[in-house]
Amino acid sequence: xxxxxxxxxxxxxxxxxxxxxxxxxxxxxxxxxxxxxxxxxxxxxxxxxxxxxxxxxxxxxxxxxxxxxxxxxxxxxxxxxxxxxxxxxxxxxxxxxxxxxxxxxxxxxxxxxxxxxxxxxxxxxxxxxxxxxxxxxxxxxxxxxxxxxxxxxxxxxxxxxxxxxxxxxxxxxxxxxxxxxxxxxxxxxxxxxxxxxxxxxxxxxxxxxxxxxxxxxxxxxxxxxxxxxxxxxxxxxxxxxxxxxxxxxxxxxxxxxxxxxxxxxxxxxxxxxxxxxxxxxxxxxxxxxxxxxxxxxxxxxxxxxxxxxxxxxxxxxxxxxxxxxxxxxxxxxxxxxxxxxxxxxxxxxxxxxxxxxxxxxxxxxxxxxx
Length: 370
Hints:
Radius of gyration: 23 Å
Number of helices: 13
């Protein structure tokens, strides 16, 4: 009741709230609610219009999710809070937030990019169809020719196909209209490079189908992607994917972006296809110390009192899946935060991690140190 009264004081009629799906019941209020769309019963993905509208919502909510993600990196907030800390929880959170604000960089470093991305999204927000969706129709007699079935053949195809644009990272970032899609696409890139196959359309010009792109939710499910290229205008590339939001026209999903990264990497002599061995030097050590991860470790040591130690022994959970340690499952320890992770939970491959196991950093620490 108190929270409802507070909302009434702060919010005005017709204010727009960008929320997640947990706030569906608030639609009955006098202010506008923008929530990501839900797939209709009997459907496998959002319609083009639904996906476009959801993209606008998730674009604005992304900064909130990233801020929450930074806060959840602190051990004390990753699991249930010990009851002795509850009376001081407000003060503890204030200290954590202040540390993040002091030592971590801004979530948006350049507002001009944000405005540009919003403009791109709004240009397509009312599109009702994706012209490439029809090319995925199994009932139609569309013919594709298999042109690449493994990594070496894919590299040869990309190098020798003239209609594939010479993408730059700047091109891909602009096409993505967002930070989170770029981060996800890097994960798909690593997971899919040895699994995908490429087909070329037999009569639609400059059009390919990519089969076997990994899903981040389950290793069993694979997605199929249709791309149509403009050789002279990289940013005019068109996409359709079989994933939940793959029908949107505002920007490609992360599966589409990972294929652009593949093309860019291949044409730039594969810098992202090679595993680089790195060693910690003084410069990197200083850089890490200036981030909140360093103070996070200090704070965890301070909070590691007897009560907390006893509780942790009986309740310790690991990885983003929050499961107890299992000797039968291989896990990797982050060289920075010392947390344990299952490679499959963070979209990585055990064999590739083992090549750089002493210097391996989890995705959260990797983001902080970049």
